[in-house]
TrEMBL record:
Name assigned to this protein: RNA-directed DNA polymerase
MF terms in GO: RNA-directed DNA polymerase activity
Lineage of source species: Eukaryota, Metazoa, Ecdysozoa, Arthropoda, Hexapoda
EC annotation from Swiss-Prot or TrEMBL: 2.7.7.49
PANTHER family (UniProt xref): PROTEIN CBG26694, RIBONUCLEASE H
Length: 281
């Protein structure tokens, strides 16, 4: 459909949930379930007019899809809209396309919510891929992060690929590495400050790998080996915002202090200053 149907479609830009939204939903749980829909799009029925647009010609005849096929550009947004409309009224539940995440404070709470979700899926005649579903777990893995009742942690095996990266040989490789590191920015204290030499190496599309770049590259990989776990934000605890600045970057950490006086980070943030910002007084 890349050269036939897709160029003529108005793409449904219904938003996928941001990772922060998923974290915010699942922070309410001590027990978790993950449901995976079988063949995702192929369970979303098409109306007659849409079916006609999916017509394909083969040596065995002409066929039309009755359900949303893969490869249609409007698929992700349309399917997310469909699933969100069906399940958005069920609390402690969030959908990312064909993955449904559910949490509960107790096993009973989770069972009650799970029954509501399964009832709704049954009404819509949606089927699950049972072997990929997880039920009543004390932790749940979401996009490279492990969520428990108290914390969010990075799944270590997902870091291994970054740790095995050799020093970039060109701007494309460097930008790819920086993009992967940025995915874990919330776990990295003063990340932007550490990466300043690498950011500067991407300026004006001139690749000039220096000793400072090599030092920053090795230091950020070292930091990735000892990432701190993050606490779920608790509005009932004291909230602490700590800020720092250098000539080249800004940094901050948002933390909670628990009832025992222990301070635990919720998230780190940092930003490299551009040449104009560096002149601010």
């Amino acid at each position: 459909y890349k050269v036939t149907l897709n160029p003529n479609l108005e793409v449904d830009h219904f938003p996928l949930p941001h990772i922060d939204e998923i974290f915010d939903t699942l922070k309410n749980g001590q027990y978790f379930c993950e449901l995976d829909l079988k063949e995702a799009y192929l369970q979303a029925p098409l109306d007659i007019q849409s079916q006609e647009l999916t017509t394909i010609v083969t040596e065995n005849g002409t066929f039309q899809y009755q359900y949303l096929p893969y490869g249609v550009s409007t698929g992700p947004g349309s399917f997310q809209r469909l699933m969100s409309n069906k399940l958005s009224q069920i609390s402690n539940t969030i959908v990312f396309i064909d993955n449904i995440y559910i949490c509960g404070q107790t096993v009973g709470d989770l069972l009650e919510t799970l029954c509501k979700v399964l009832t709704k899926l049954q009404e819509c005649e949606f089927k699950l891929k049972l072997e990929k579903c997880k039920f009543f777990k004390t932790s749940i893995d979401v996009f490279g992060f492990r969520i428990t009742k108290n914390e969010i942690n990075v799944i270590k095996k997902n870091i291994e690929t970054l740790l095995k990266c050799e020093a970039p040989k060109n701007i494309t490789m460097l930008k790819s590495f920086l993009g992967k590191v940025n995915y874990y920015a919330r776990f990295l204290k003063n990340m932007a400050h550490i990466l300043v030499p690498l950011y500067e190496c991407t300026q004006k599309n001139k690749f000039n790998w220096t000793k400072e770049c090599d030092k920053a590259f090795n230091l950020i990989k070292e930091k990735l080996t000892s990432l701190e776990s993050l606490r779920h934000y608790d509005p009932n605890l004291t909230l602490i915002l700590t800020c720092d600045a250098s000539h080249t970057a800004l940094g901050a950490v948002l933390s909670n202090r628990d009832l025992n006086g222990v301070v635990k980070p919720i998230a780190f943030a940092s930003k490299k200053l551009n040449s104009t910002e560096q002149k601010y007084s």
